[in-house]
C-alpha cells in the first residue's frame, strides 16, 4: 500500500487559496500544544514524586520501636531505613523526570525555530503570489478592454470608408492606430504579468512541496519524541516500583529473622534480677522467742496423721480390726 505524503494531499485548485498550508500549520500548532501539555503533566508528576519522597524521608525519622530489643529492634531499624531509601528513590525519580522535561522543551523549541523560517518564507510567497495574481487579472481586464476599443474603432473605420471625407478618415485612422498600439501594449503587459505570475507560482509550488516535506518530517519526529517520552516515563515509574519492592524485600527478610524466643531470652539475660523468690515471713513470739509457731491457730492445711493400730494388754479384751479374721458385722433384727 502506498504511503500517504503531505506533499500530495494539501493542495487547492484555487491559486490564491492557502487552505492546505493552513491545515498543516494548524496541525503543527496542535502538536506543539500536545508537547507542552505532556511537559506540564510530567511536571506535576515531579511535584507529586518529590513531595511523596520528602514525606517518606520525614516519616522515617519519626520515633518508632526505639524500646524494642534484639531481632525486633533490628527489624525496626531496617524497616525505617528502607522507608527512607524508598523516599530518597522517589526524590531521585523526580530529578530524572526533570531531565526528560528538559529534553521535551528543547525539542519543542528547536522545531519552533525551524518552522519560523519556513512560515516566514511561505507567507512572503503567498503575499507575492496573491499580489501578482491580482495584478495579472487587472492587466487581463485592461487588455480585454483595449482589444474591445480597438475592434470598435476598426469597425467604425470600415463603416466610414468611402463615406467620410479624407480628414475624418485620417482622424479615424489615427484613433485606430492609437487603439491598436494601446491594445498591443496591454497585451505585452498582460503577457509579462502572466509570465511573472507563472514564475512566482512555480517558486511557491516548489516551496510548498519543500514545506510539506519539512513539516511531515517534523511531525514524524514529534510523534516519535512524544511516544518515546511517554515510554521512558513509564519505564522510570516501573523501575521505581521494582526498586521500591527490592527495598521492601529487605524488610521482609529481616522480619523473617525475627525470633520471638530469642527476643524473650535476650530481654531476660539483659534485665534479669534473680531466680529465687523471697522467703516467707515467720512469726516470732515476743515473750518466749519461739519461731515458726502460730499460737491458737491451726495450720492452714493440716494433714491428718494415720491412726495408730490399737494394742491390747493381757487384761484387756482383744479388738478385731477391719479385714481381720475375727471381725464380723453385728446385725440387729
For this entry, give a set of tags.
333 residues, mainly alpha, rod-shaped
Characterize the structure shown.
It is a single chain. The chain is mainly α and 333 residues long. It is built from four helices and no strands. It has helices at 19-60, 70-160, 166-256, 260-271. The longest helix is centred in the middle third of the chain and has 91 residues, at 70-160. The model is unreliable at 315-324 and 326-333 (pLDDT under 50).
Helix content: over 70%
The helix-and-strand class reads mainly alpha
- Following the backbone from N to C, one meets helices and strands in this order, namely HHHH
Any idea what the shape is? rod-shaped
Give a quick account of the main beta sheet: strands, pairing sense, barrel closure.
Answer: none
Q: Determine the strand fraction and express it as a percent band.
A: under 5%
Radius of gyration: 58 Å
| Total helical segments | 4
| Number of extended strands | 0
Amino acid at each position: 500500500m502506498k504511503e500517504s505524503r503531505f506533499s500530495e494531499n494539501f493542495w487547492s485548485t484555487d491559486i490564491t487559496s492557502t487552505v492546505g498550508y493552513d491545515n498543516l500549520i494548524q496541525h503543527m500548532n496542535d502538536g506543539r500544544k500536545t508537547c507542552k501539555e505532556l511537559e506540564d503533566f510530567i511536571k506535576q508528576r515531579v511535584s507529586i514524586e518529590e513531595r511523596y519522597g520528602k514525606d517518606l524521608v520525614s516519616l522515617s525519622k519519626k520515633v518508632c520501636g526505639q524500646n524494642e530489643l534484639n531481632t525486633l529492634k533490628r527489624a525496626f531499624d531496617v524497616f525505617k531505613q528502607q522507608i527512607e531509601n524508598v523516599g530518597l528513590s522517589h526524590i531521585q525519580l523526580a530529578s530524572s523526570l526533570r531531565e526528560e522535561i528538559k529534553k521535551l522543551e528543547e525539542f519543542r523549541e528547536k522545531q519552533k525555530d525551524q518552522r519560523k523560517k519556513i512560515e516566514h518564507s511561505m507567507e512572503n510567497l503567498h503575499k507575492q503570489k496573491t499580489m501578482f495574481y491580482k495584478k495579472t487579472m487587472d492587466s487581463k481586464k485592461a487588455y480585454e478592454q483595449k482589444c474591445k476599443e480597438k475592434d470598435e474603432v476598426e469597425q467604425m473605420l470600415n463603416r466610414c470608408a468611402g463615406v467620410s471625407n479624407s480628414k475624418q478618415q485620417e482622424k479615424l485612422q489615427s484613433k485606430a492606430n492609437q487603439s491598436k498600439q494601446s491594445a498591443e501594449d496591454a497585451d505585452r503587459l498582460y503577457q509579462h504579468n502572466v509570465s511573472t505570475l507563472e514564475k512566482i507560482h512555480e517558486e511557491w509550488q516548489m516551496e510548498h512541496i519543500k514545506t510539506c516535506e519539512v513539516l511531515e518530517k517534523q511531525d514524524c519526529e514529534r510523534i516519535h519524541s512524544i511516544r518515546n517520552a511517554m515510554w521512558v516515563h513509564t519505564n522510570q515509574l516501573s523501575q521505581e516500583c521494582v526498586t521500591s519492592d527490592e527495598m521492601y524485600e529487605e524488610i521482609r527478610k529481616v522480619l523473617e529473622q525475627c525470633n520471638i524466643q530469642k527476643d524473650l531470652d535476650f530481654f531476660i539475660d539483659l534485665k534479669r534480677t534473680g531466680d529465687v523468690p523471697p522467703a516467707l515471713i515467720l512469726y516470732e513470739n515476743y515473750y518466749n522467742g519461739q519461731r515458726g509457731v502460730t499460737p491458737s491457730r491451726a495450720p492452714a492445711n493440716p494433714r491428718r496423721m494415720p491412726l495408730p493400730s490399737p494394742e491390747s494388754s493381757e487384761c484387756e479384751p482383744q479388738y478385731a480390726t477391719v479385714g481381720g479374721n475375727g471381725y464380723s458385722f453385728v446385725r440387729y433384727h
